[in-house]
Amino acid sequence: MAINWFPGHMHKAQKEIKEILPQIDVVIEVCDARLPFSSENPMITEIRGDKPLIKILNKSDLADAEKTKLWLAYLESQHNVKAIALTTENTATAKTIPDLIRKLVPNKDEEGKQINAMIMGIPNVGKSTLINTLVGKAKAKVGNEPAVTKGQQRIRLEEGLYLFDTPGMLWPKIANENSGYRLAVSGAVKDTAFDHDDIAYFAAEYLLANYPERLVERYQLDETPQHEEDLIEAIGRRRGCVRSGGHIDMHKAAVILINEIRDKTLGAITFEIPDIIDKENHHFNELEAKRVATREAKKLARGRGRKNKR
């Protein structure tokens, strides 16, 4: 699935982040609790070095609570990572973040030195809303569309503690292609960037495997469909998406499914767990290694061909 999601201001932001990082003491990454892996930026792992990382699983009220617990434990098992889950409504936990930042750099706090934290996150993940909660007023522009924030800003959270905000960024290439589908299902990518039908089929397959009882209840199905196409067709039939001749408008049915995932009509859903991601990453890494080996073999063959012509 090819998605053009790397506009110029995101490339510029990536460069600026790398330049400012030496001044940063703590990195904060806001992820979507429904897809903690797919919504993280791989660049952070590459550039943060040994700096403490606070991983925030935002919108956890939209995610499966049991799966969120799995993710919190998984993330905290990683080096120098602290993970917390936040909801869009409960601000009490969010307001503990400044204290957590200070605890992660105790030497600076004890010496009264300025502490700089940098907050990052993909578009539409709730980063600006979180910043507004932390400062107690609307400092960061809030919007429902991806890429609302386009420039860096420094925000004083409290005495001696500053937060550097960054634009929401996606990245040009995703090694695990299923992550692209999950980002699309969640709404992190604008609807013009993908085909609703493809995304709905991906979501339907996952829901049938992991939340079949929700589907049966919501769409009043007599039995659980066996395949994703059967599910979307059943949704279309139940919701009156019927064309002349009795044919189901599969596109309309697909849009209904996507919308009802996003607005929580289907309940709290998590689209990945650590075990699934580990297996997928292994699979896609193997595929990438084979592609690289094939390219190198072709380059070698071309080089030999040129030598033989001389």
Describe this structure in words.
This protein is of the alpha/beta class and 310 residues long. The protein has three domains: 8-165, Rossmann fold (3-Layer(aba) Sandwich), CATH 3.40.50; 195-262, Orthogonal Bundle (Conserved Hypothetical Protein Ylqf, Chain: A, domain 2); 273-310. It has helices at 8-20, 42-47, 65-76, 97-104, 106-110, 127-135, 177-186, 196-210, 212-218, 228-238, 250-262, 274-309, and strands at residues 26-32, 53-58, 81-85, 115-121, 153-158, 161-165. A six-stranded mixed beta sheet has the order 3-2-1-4-6-5, sandwiched between helices. Strand 1, helix 2 and strand 2 form a beta-alpha-beta unit. Helix 7 packs across helix 8, helix 8 (196-210) packs across helix 9 and helix 8 (196-210) crosses helix 11 (250-262). The radius of gyration is 22 Å and the shape is globular. The relative contact order is 0.13. The model is unreliable at 1-5 and 142-151 (pLDDT under 50).
Structure in a nutshell:
By secondary structure, this protein is an alpha/beta fold.
Brief descriptors of the model:
310 residues; alpha/beta; Rossmann fold; Conserved Hypothetical Protein Ylqf, Chain: A, domain 2; 3 domains; six-stranded mixed beta sheet; 12 helices; 47% helix; 12% strand; disordered N terminus
How many H/I helices? 12
Question: In the residues, how many domains can be counted?
Answer: 3
Calculate the terminal CA-CA distance, rounded to whole Å. Answer: 42 Å
| Overall pLDDT metric | 83
What letter string, H or E per element, gives the SSE order? HEHEHEHHEHEEHHHHHH
C-alpha geometry: globular
Instruction: Say which CATH homologous superfamily of the largest domain is assigned.
Output: P-loop containing nucleotide triphosphate hydrolases
Give the % helix: 40-55%
Q: Roughly how many Å is the radius of gyration?
A: 22 Å
Report the CATH C-level class of the largest domain.
Alpha Beta
Order the strands across the largest sheet as they lie in space.
Answer: 3-2-1-4-6-5
Pick out the low-confidence regions: 1-5, 142-151
Tell me what the CATH architecture of the largest domain is: 3-Layer(aba) Sandwich
* CATH T-level topology of the largest domain: Rossmann fold
Biggest pleated-sheet summary: 6 strands, mixed
Strand content: 5-15%
Please tally the β strands and state the result: 6
